[in-house]
Amino acid sequence: MEAKVTQTPFKPLNRRNFLAGAAAVIGTPALAQSTGTIEMEREITQSVRRNISSFRSMTWQPYFKSLRNGAVLVDIDSRALHYWSEDGRTYKLYPSSIPLSEELTRRGRTRVTRKVEGPSWSPTPNMLKRNPEWPAFVPPGPDNPLGTHALYLGWKYYRIHGTHDTRKIGRRSSNGCIGLYNEHIAELFGLAKVGTQVLLI
């Protein structure tokens, strides 16, 4: 039986179309969504560029032996997250934020170990060393850097999560985690489960 793919055919994007499409997905202006949020990561500047040249669909076979429990592939270079359901019928492709530097980037295999809707957030000890002015705890809500949902991974401190600051998507803007638009992480949250395979390349 041929698998049904839920992704629309890919069309070449330029920066203007990418931003317009992202705004349409979100439904409200990006700056309006980021108003009042705590900027827990480096300020976004004009010198930071989006990378959409490699934003394309992929197949799971080169990366996973099977789709048992579903699979998530995060491509750091193209700044995209791919998801395949266990039965292979559902495929999703989402733009993502990635870590600020290679030093903060982790690659390899892990899995989803916990799912949290309305996550709270605490900076890691290393984050607090670098940024002693940051709060030690941020409760769930519009100021939370993890957005509306978080998938906790087998690696300590690493998450796939949402963000209220939509400027970060498609950019090097995180301290190690992978960020998605809140609408996208909510969808992925519903599709993924504890035990879903995760590979960062």
Automatic annotation (TrEMBL):
Chaperone among keywords: no
Active site: residue positions: H161 (proton donor/acceptor), C177 (nucleophile)
Pathway(s) per entry: Cell wall biogenesis; peptidoglycan biosynthesis
Residues in L,D-TPase catalytic domain copies: 70-201
UniProt entry keywords in alphabetical sequence: Cell shape, Cell wall biogenesis/degradation, Glycosyltransferase, Hydrolase, Peptidoglycan synthesis, Transferase
PROSITE patterns linked to this entry: LD_TPASE (PS52029)
InterPro entries: LD-transpeptidase (IPR050979), LD_TPept_cat_dom (IPR005490), Transpep_catalytic_dom (IPR038063)
PANTHER family per the UniProt record, alphabetical: L,D-TRANSPEPTIDASE, L,D-TRANSPEPTIDASE ERFK_SRFK-RELATED
Family affiliation: Belongs to the YkuD family.
Protein name as annotated: L,D-transpeptidase family protein
